[in-house]
Each structure stands twice: as structure tokens, then as C-alpha cells.
Amino acid sequence: MGVYQHLATIFGHTAGLSSSTGISWMCLAHPPTKERNIMRKKVTIVGAGNVGATAAHWIASKELADVVLIDVIDGVPQGKGLDLLESLPIEKRDVSVIGTNDYADTANSDIVVITAGIARKPGMSRDDLLNTNFNIMSDVAGKALAASPNAIFIIVSNPLDAMAQTAFKKLGLPRERVIGMAGVLDSARFRTFIAQELNVSVENVTAFVLGGHGDTMVPLSRYSTVAGIPITELIPADRLKELETRTANGGAEIVKYLKTGSAYYAPSAAAVEMVEAILKDKKKILPCAAYLQGEYGIKGLYVGVPCKLGAKGLEQIIEIKLTADEQTALNKSADAVKELCTVIGVA
Ligand SMILES: NC(=O)c1ccc[n+]([C@@H]2O[C@H](COP(=O)([O-])OP(=O)(O)OC[C@H]3O[C@@H](n4cnc5c(N)ncnc54)[C@H](O)[C@@H]3O)[C@@H](O)[C@H]2O)c1
Fold first, then answer.
1. CA of 137 relative to ligand 1 center, distance in Å
2. What is the mean pLDDT of residues 27-37?
């Protein structure tokens, strides 16, 4: 007699739940069923490459939701999904993870994270990915929405702001349900460099980065703190400038090392922080790419700004007062996003 049967016999008899085979799965916490436990949330990740698969890893290891990895390549999402699933007994996490090439498997997801597309190689800017990723985004966004009409979309593919704008236009959803990931990553990089510089816990450091995800991003040192103390009081201005520049070039720094691809641990962790804020209705303020409708003087464009994320997705855009220089830098960043959006016809 197998262990399930043995347990079922014991508990089934005492609880009077035995089926015709003498087995009742009702008495077992986690029956070996293929059916999804519909009480759990479901997150689909489109693109089972480095960022997508690592995002699946973070979600499963935090036990946030069931995960579906979908990709155009046959076998890769299935293999990575199964491999990740087989790690969960060790990690003591009960979620389902599957890989697929079929959108039917993604049905009724609560959140769809889109990471599909090509990534940068050395010498390439994010903007070099524009046309290829525009075609991929146009293809996958509609398919994912058809399967999950109530999902909230988190866009990760680059060039980020232009891809978020593409998804927004293709999906036709309210802006609350289409949010771009960039600022969480950029500010995490800034926080890392500040913590290293001052030799303090990363937990003590908050940092804000505004604007598009690119060379024109605007790290806001004035609003960045260590245990509540503005970093402008802790780090000399010229050194701070160096950390800001390193942050703006943070993606390229990793690409240069990797040579065959771009960063994925921090990017996927950043996307999953957004997923968690939404699934847990945390009302967390995070820098995200949002479709601005006049906020910060910008209209009809995805740009990185402080956002409140909760169960409804983007629940609020927080407007902070910028200095003239900061506003000029933000406008410049928005102009760069607009230029890309114009090229692909989504401005
Ligand atoms: N927003 C950010 O801050 C940020 C950070 C890092 C990476 N990125 C971007 O995320 C994207 C993914 O990066 P990566 O390192 O995972 O790349 P990757 O090449 O490892 O993975 C991309 C995956 O997308 C898949 N794909 C391509 N077309 C598809 C389609 N039509 N449907 C489904 N899947 C498809 C590929 O087969 C591949 O598995 C890139 O565009 C990269 O630039 C963004």
C-alpha cells in the first residue's frame, strides 16, 4: 500500500470520507491532483528566457501564486517549469508551475508579466530592440488578454516605456491595468550603490528614480534616504553624481560582463515586487512606468513615476514637487520615450 492510500485509509475511516476505492484525498493537505487549486492566485509569464524563468523562480519561492511560463520555443518553458516545480519539495512551497506554448493554459490569470522579446548584447542600446520587440509585444499582448480578460499586465520587455505604451494601445485596457517595470530595478541599483558606499544595510536605503528606463533616467538624490536621512547630507555631491551615473548605466554594466545577454536577477526580482504588491493589495509606493494623463505636465505617454500598487493595479500616481532642473531632466526623458513611440506608431 502506498503512503497516500495508507493515510487515506486511516483518515478516511476516521472521518468517514472513504471513496469507493477506500481512498479519500479530502483528508490530505496536498492531494497529487493535476487540477489547479482555484483558491490560489495565478500569474502567467510570457517569455521563458532569463528574466521570465527567474521571475517564475522568485514567485514560486515566495509562494505567491501558481505560475504558467509560456514561450514560442517548444520545450523550453516545459523543461524550466518542470525543473522549478521539482525544486518546491525542497523549498517547501506549494504552488503549481507549468510551462507551455499554448495560451489556453494561461486562462484566467490574475497577472500577466510580459518578458518576451530579444535582450541586449554588448554595444546595443535598449532602443536597438525596438522593432523586433514591438512585433513580439503586438503578438503576445492580445493573445494573453484573450485568455485572461481580467488580468493586470506588467510589462518588462525593452525598450521598456515604448513597449508598455505598445501593450497599452494593443490591449485597450485602462491604464490601471497596464504597468511597466523599470523604476523598481533602477532604484534597487541606486540603493545597492548607496548601501555599498556608506557600508550600511540595504534595508536602510530608499531611493527614487524617475523618468524613462534608459540613459535619460532621473535618479532623485534629494528624495533618497538612509534611515530617513537624505543622502545629500551623507555623500558629497560629486560622488553622488558618480553613483547616479553608474545607476543610469547599470544595465550596460551587466551586459558588458555577460556578453551574451542582459541582467535578469534584479530585473525579475523587481517585476515580482510589483506582482506581490498587487496580489497582496499592499498599496505599496513603487516607481513604475505609468501612462501619464497630465501628471508632471506629461500627457499620453508612459514615463516612470511614483505609483501606488494594490489589488486594482495602478491605484494612484503620486506627484512630487520637482525642482526646475529635475523637471527639465524628466521632460528630456519623456521626449526620448516619445521619439521611440513615434517610430513604431504608438505615440
Ligand atoms: N524593464 C527592465 O528593466 C528590463 C530588465 C532586463 C531585461 N529586460 C528586457 O526583458 C526582455 C527579456 O529579457 P531576457 O534576458 O529574459 O531575454 P531572453 O532572450 O533570455 O528571453 C526572451 C524570451 O522571449 C521569448 N520569446 C520571443 N518571442 C516570443 C513570443 N512571440 N512569445 C513568447 N515568447 C517569446 C524567447 O523565446 C525567449 O525565451 C528583453 O527585452 C530585455 O531587454 C527589461
1. 10
2. 46
